[in-house]
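Internal tracking record. Fields below are filled automatically when a chain is submitted to the structure queue. Please do not edit lines marked as system-generated. If the sequence contains nonstandard residues, flag them in the REMARKS field before resubmitting.
Queue: standard
Priority: normal
Entity type: single polypeptide chain
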Amino acid sequence: TVRLGHLLAPIGVRYIAFVRRAMPEAGPRGRRDPALATGLAAQLDLAVSRAEGNAIVYENEAWIPLRAVAPEGSEVPLDSADPLAAAQASSLAGATPVAEGDTAGPGTLLWGESADAGWSATLDGAATNRRDAYGWTNAFELDDRGEIDVSFSWRAYPILAWAQLVLWALA
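SYSTEM-GENERATED OUTPUT FOLLOWS
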């Protein structure tokens, strides 16, 4: 692929460092791999951010924050059968960082935690629909602009809390 940045963007990878030496002035040198160097240089969505004798740092121009709102009309792959192909084809230009309690929307809220039905989000107190995005994370549709509240409900927690109390009582 020549779109490695698009593949890494949904998991929040902003920089890639290609280092050939363990330490700046000493340590073992890595073997030069021309295919890897050529492959990284050919990427359309990676730009050289910094280059020094033993290292090159690439910036991912397709990067998005792990918690962001993609504007309406963005192609966010939801419930995708092939997440890698979906990530490679999608562009989330214009996605804005967001934190819990921020006001955002309309668009798709991408919440960079493992996809799990225990995650829920509300927009001004109203529940939103959760779906898997990119095959690993959570997406919530925001129909309007409003305050976002995201929470996780782990269903086994009450059982474990009671089990811990019982164990403390027996000890």
